[in-house]
Design a protein that fits this description.
This protein is α+β, with helices and mostly antiparallel strands. It has 6 domains: 167 residues, no CATH class; 134 residues, Beta Polymerase, domain 2; 79 residues, Ubiquitin-like (UB roll); 80 residues, no CATH class; 88 residues, no CATH class; 75 residues, ACT domain (Alpha-Beta Plaits, 2-Layer Sandwich), CATH 3.30.70. Helix content is 48%, strand content 17%. The chain is built from 24 helices and 20 strands. Strands 1, 2, 3, 4, 5 and 6 form a 6-stranded mixed β-sheet that branches. Strands 12-16-14-15-13 form a 5-stranded mixed β-sheet. It has a 4-stranded antiparallel β-sheet with strand order 18-19-17-20, with helices on one face. Strand 7 and strand 8 form a beta hairpin.
Length: 663
């Protein structure tokens, strides 16, 4: 037979199998008439199977992704039928290992959800036959060896039950079977025993011919008769009468200890229930009145989708269409709601991954935190230790888990800020030798306009409230409580701000007068915490002023600092007059901006001048050239403004240098 003939034969067998799955040739022909659309759907699923890690095949999340990608339930049925047809025709010695794995991990579970138990059992048995050849034939051999003994036992057990049931008015018949090889193998694995040690190899099915209004009553009557005769195992009791499975399956399952102390499973159901158990959702919807018309087929397909979406027994939140399925780089699959972002995915992986997330990579491209994910995306989360949750993240996250974790982190950060601010305030009080009083502090906080204590400490931590201002208000409250005359002070709100330029001029004038109460900047100064501001890099000789920071330390700025105007307008009460002490050989870092015409020797000329300067060190130099011009930055260490001005003059003498300015 040619390859083409084989393909035609396989396709014919596939459609014959579909007939039994959906309830007849007429239904099959109506459902699967649009072969072109179905083939497009199967191609899409085949592409998905090639892309995903094989470890994901058996997961519930991948099953949901598979169904979502298919879109049409007919594609799922066709793929399942093709898999089983191929498995039936395999040469035992040359199976396709990938399809064998798909049969066990993907198509068998989907068949189970559809209620196609015969298809599910056969797929499991065949996959075991090809993947665990020796195990499969060992179990089959053991079952055949003891078939006569087993049949004799089952007949004896059936006879005892049949005698009791004939005493009732029930109409019934009994089927008997041995468990599937795959089912027996699973029990051997779980119980760590050989075939002989599996305690419930046998199963009986009592099928009642009962009218619809008597079905449940008759089933429970049989249940009562059997449990009166034999001891039942309550742990293996399954009641799918009171609560049928989502795929329509109804039955009572009990396991009893029969003669010779052997366990036997008994299933009790009606003819209608047995038809549904044999033919799955096809029979279930047929009993609900669905005919093989166009509208009926669509209703049946909708029922299949509903059953697959809500799972086998327990319904899950949301519909498949409202979810996305996303892979990690190593192949783990996560289920998220539609509209979920990279930030949601990061928190789904781990809280710390979410807390430090800076973005992600999809298909080799960087994507931001707010990027919405699509089913099938392979996402690599980017993190940084310096990253932490922000208030704005609550507008990005969509899942309850992510939002909860963000709120928790923000709350913990706020608590940490409060602790640090409280420690800072108490330390400053101790430095000023102020006695700490909780009632006094509470009155102070209230007078400062704060209704909530945590808001007060947060304002200190964020630099919105100056600690020195708090301490002054605290001391005023102490005097008030002691009955001392209160010194009238003006609030910042009453202060009339003079023009910034005029204030800078006044500050320079004060610095030149040599008045008392001026901070003298000295490297050996003790008891006062001061630092040179990094925004303007003051050096000896610059006109400077001090500014009290939120932490209580003093920053020394140049009077021509670009930030001076804003600081004067917002915090005039924080200014401290300052001047330099006599020079003590200290060196300061200065950065110069140099612009000129590009020349090959420009860098050598610049470094040559610096190298000739005594006690001057070059820290760094960077030059960028474009269209015949260069621009660069030079950082050096020198003692004072006199040396600085001298260096600038010498650099300007270099051929091609147009301008040198202090940064």
């Amino acid at each position: 037979m040619s390859t083409n003939d084989t393909k035609i034969t396989d396709e014919s067998a596939t459609y014959e199998l579909l007939s039994s799955m959906v309830g007849g040739n007429e239904v099959r022909d109506t459902m699967f008439a649009d072969k072109e659309a179905l083939e497009a759907g199967t191609q899409k699923l085949s592409d998905l199977l090639r892309e995903v890690p094989r470890t994901a095949l058996g997961t519930e999340n991948f099953h949901s992704l598979f169904i979502t990608t298919a879109g049409d339930m007919r594609v799922i049925l066709l793929m399942t039928a093709r898999c089983l047809t191929a498995m039936r025709n395999y040469d035992t010695e040359h199976p396709d290992p990938e399809l064998v794995e798909e049969a066990a991990s993907l198509y068998a579970p989907l068949a189970h959800k559809l209620g196609l138990y015969q298809v599910k059992t056969e797929l499991e048995d065949l996959s075991l036959k090809y993947s665990e050849h020796d195990v499969y034939y060992h179990i089959a051999h053991e079952l055949n060896q003891k078939k006569r003994e087993r049949d004799a036992y089952i007949n004896k057990f059936v006879q005892s039950i049949d005698e009791r049931l004939r005493q009732t008015s029930l109409h019934y018949h009994i089927k008997q079977r041995t468990k599937s090889i795959h089912s027996i193998w699973q029990k051997m694995q779980k119980q760590h025993v050989d075939v002989d040690g599996v305690f419930d190899l046998f199963a009986l099915r009592i099928i009642l011919d009962s009218p619809h209004d008597r079905e449940h009553a008759d089933c429970w009557q049989v249940f009562s008769i059997i449990t009166d005769m034999y001891t039942s195992n309550p742990k293996r009791m399954r009641d799918w009468l009171s609560k049928p499975k989502q795929n329509g399956y109804e039955s009572l399952h009990i396991t009893v200890l029969g003669p010779e102390q052997k366990w036997v499973e008994v299933q009790i159901r009606t003819e209608r229930m047995d038809d549904i158990a044999e033919h799955g959702l096809a029979a279930h919807w047929r009993y609900k009145g669905i005919k093989s018309t166009e509208g009926g087929i669509e209703a049946w397909l909708a029922g299949i989708r509903s059953a697959l979406e809500t799972g086998d027994q327990e319904p899950v939140t949301g519909l498949v269409e409202d979810e996305v399925f996303v892979f990690t780089p190593r192949g783990d699959l996560f289920r998220l709601p539609m509209g979920a972002t990279v930030l949601d995915f990061a928190y789904a992986i781990h809280t710390q991954v979410g807390n430090h997330c800076t973005g992600g990579k999809i298909g080799g491209k960087n994507v931001p935190l707010r990027h919405q994910l699509q089913s099938g995306d392979h996402v690599e989360i980017q993190t940084a230790n310096s990253q932490s949750p922000k208030q704005g993240w609550l507008n990005i996250a969509t899942t309850s888990r992510a939002r909860s974790k963000i709120r928790q982190s923000l709350k913990e950060a706020e608590a940490g800020q409060t602790t640090l601010a409280k420690e800072l305030l108490e330390r400053k009080m101790k430095n000023r030798k102020l006695d700490y009083s909780e009632p006094t502090l509470m009155h102070t906080i209230k007078r400062l306009g704060f209704k909530v204590v945590t808001d007060f400490y947060r304002a200190i931590a964020e630099g919105k409230l100056d600690v020195n201002q708090v301490l002054e208000a605290y001391q005023a409250q102490q005097r008030r409580e002691r009955g001392e005359e209160e010194v009238v002070t003006r609030s910042a709100g009453e202060f009339v701000m003079p023009e910034p330029n005029a204030q800078l001029s006044t500050l320079n004038s004060q610095l030149s007068t040599g008045k008392d109460d001026v901070l003298v900047i000295d490297q050996n100064l003790k008891g006062i915490d001061f630092q040179l501001a990094k925004c303007c890099h003051p050096i000896y000789g610059d006109d400077v002023f001090g500014f009290v920071s939120a932490s209580g330390g003093i920053r020394i700025h140049r009077t021509d600092c670009p930030n001076a105007r804003q600081m004067l307008s917002r915090y005039p009460y924080r200014f401290v007059r300052a001047r330099w002490a006599s020079k003590r050989g200290s060196q300061y870092s200065i950065t110069l901006h140099i612009v000129g015409q590009d020349d090959m020797g420009i860098v050598n000329n610049i470094t040559s001048i610096i190298s000739k300067e005594e006690k001057m060190l070059m820290r760094s130099i960077s030059i960028d050239a474009n269209d015949g011009l260069f621009s660069g930055h030079l950082t050096v260490m020198l003692e004072d403004t006199d040396r600085l001005q001298s260096l600038i003059r010498k650099l300007k003498t270099i051929k091609g240098v147009k301008n040198v300015t202090r940064v």
